[in-house]
Amino acid sequence: MSDKAFDTDRGQGGETHQHVPEKGPHGSAEAHLTTNQGIRVSDNQNSLKSGARGPTLLEDFVLREKIFHFDHERIPERIVHARGSAAHGYFEATDDISDLSKAALFKKGEKTPVFTRFSTVAGGAGSVDTPRDVRGFAVKFYTSEGNWDLVGNNIPVFFIQDAIKFPDLVHAVKMEADKAYPQAGSAHDTFWDWASLMPETTHMLMWAMSDRTIPRSLRMIEGFGIHTFRLVNAEGQSTFVKFHWKPRLGVQSTVWDEAMKLQAADNDYHRRDLYEAIDTGSYPEWELGIQAFDQAFADAQPYDVLDATKIIPEEVIPVRIIGRMVLDRNPDNFFAETEQVAYCPANIVPGIDFSNDPLLQGRLFSYLDTQKSRLGTANFHQLPINAPKCPVMNFQRDGQMQMTVPKGRANYEPNSLAAHGEEGGPRECPMTGFKTFPSAEGGDEQGDKLRVRAELFADHYSQARLFWTSVTDSERAHIASSFTFELSKVGLEQVPSRLVANLRNVDEELAQRVADGLGIDLPEKADAARDPIDMAPSPALSIQKNMKESLEGRSIGILIADGSDAAEVASVKKGVEQAGGKAVIVSPKIGGAVLSDGKTLKADGQLAGSPSQIFDAVAIILSEEGCAALVKQAAAIQFTMDAFGHLKAIGASDAAQPLLDKAGVEADEGVTGLGADFLKAAAKRFYDREPQVRLLA
């Protein structure tokens, strides 16, 4: 592009601006200066400041990327979220939100490639899939305007309010520094010592101790952007927004005993489940929803919308569905894609912007820095899994593992090389380049730079109480029991009492149940920095109130042995498959069993290696002879006992009753015959059974 194609102006400080003319050509990708993420730059001469003479702002991702790359032009495992599984797919916009955002990916009907990674937080890359832990939910959108990374979790809140506390959180929850255990778990001294001294963690602890952190499948978790972001439309108007991913299969979790046994049964349970679902064409799908609101709504709330430890209940602002994501292709190479993918919350596109959430602001710096440390080069954006699918045009050069081969000597601007017959390179574009939404109306942003938090951030308990009052009695029992289990692992004498003292601000019954479970006296209530308030319950927060009674995406184990009725086996298998489920034949031998018709039915899994915890329900189809053999096998007894103990439906033939009796199975709504009643029961869990099978707090 020649010099004549650029307009040249002087800025307020006399600096030279060479830019694409106001009238274009804006369709020429090569003419526009971009970041490494393909986002067009509106001003390459000035960093983003708070006022004309104010300090430079940390959120200036154009400045940070440019300096960061320059710093590393001369020439290990993630610290958190190390264990992950991922897949390719696409996002399709299904609703017109052009009134809210000018982002091209939200244009109704637009399909955008994505790469989505799910992960545990605390464990290393070699840990197991099923510990009690938060799950990361990160989506990289390869948009026509550059990459957008929506980096969240399966829980809508976080432990801390300010990013400066993140190293303390991770140090506390990771393996203890002196002995390097426990791995991938929070049930130990240092985490609970820290958490008990940090009341702001209380709301997140309620979620972490709930069944949300022991999911049945990665295909059955919700995802949340956590922070309040901004949407910006073509007129420059801003709307606050929170992002939600809703799984098509609904949210479902295991029970704690089941989760522990899954660790022994299959270290890769979630990874295998995701891979096999995609491999067999059962593509996981989520709806993308938003909660959009204005400043007036934010000001009217009894909490601060910039506080990452708070939610906006869906009953207050319903989630508006604007698109869907389908994951339809497994990675070709785990290391090249799942391990090398680099998500950065700072990667946004025009039409999406940041808020002043202090936790988000810190993440904008941290992720870019950690990717350099992890991938060893400032050029990690050139790895195929990270590379934008739109043109990238800038003057950033060299550095370790440089993949491109720039021609000519234009590695700076402004320049006049094109006037001398050489290639001069791209230029900034004030018209289509990314512009940060000004946080103050008109004029320069005012205000002192302070290390403080807003007063509403001091309410650490109201939303924790909201969570407690919104879930079922069964879910409350799980929460209380989870606190009891975790705190029973703590050896520091003062910590359990201190944490229970905090819980008294959430609910007196919860605190008493945990204290009783630990065998300690109920401590005095902790002083609350701000008195909690009662909020209307939000049924949307409950797993059990919102479970989808469906066999779609579920796996049903059918236990057989020699002599099993062939017609019954075929009928149950057909019924499961017609309902959208997966029927898995289990027998004492992998070669299968000889059924009543004299034919051998090959098994999908051997009984000893296919425990009932890997299934969503079980059918036990035995003859008298087959049952007599299995009542002497510990694996069969445990298979049946665990299915009952994990609150699953059990369909059984009449001849299987001795095995049910020996396993301690008692008649209830979830123990059925092999007909339609079993298929109906198999679509749900039976939480009313739980007090019969285990002691809960």
Automatic annotation (TrEMBL):
Report the sequence similarity comment from the record: Belongs to the catalase family. HPII subfamily.
GO MF term list: catalase activity
Please report the organism this UniProt entry assigns to the protein: Sphingomonas abietis
Provide the cofactor list for this protein: heme
Q: What class of enzyme is it?
A: oxidoreductase
Residue stretches making up the Catalase core domain: 34-421
Sum up the protein's function in the record's words. Decomposes hydrogen peroxide into water and oxygen; serves to protect cells from the toxic effects of hydrogen peroxide.
Query: Is Acetylation one of the keywords UniProt gives this record?
Result: no
Instruction: Give residue spans, biased composition: Basic and acidic residues.
Output: 1-25
Q: Which PROSITE patterns match?
A: CATALASE_1, CATALASE_2, CATALASE_3
Entry annotated with the keyword Heme: yes
Region Disordered: start and end of each range?
Answer: 1-30
Listed under catalytic activity are: 2 H2O2 = O2 + 2 H2O
The record's keywords, sorted A to Z, are: Heme, Hydrogen peroxide, Iron, Metal-binding, Oxidoreductase, Peroxidase
Q: What is this protein called?
A: Catalase
Spell out the InterPro entries in the cross-references: Catalase, Catalase_AS, Catalase_clade2, Catalase_clade2_helical, Catalase_core, Catalase_haem_BS, Catalase_immune_responsive, Catalase_large_C
Q: EC number(s) in its UniProt entry?
A: 1.11.1.6
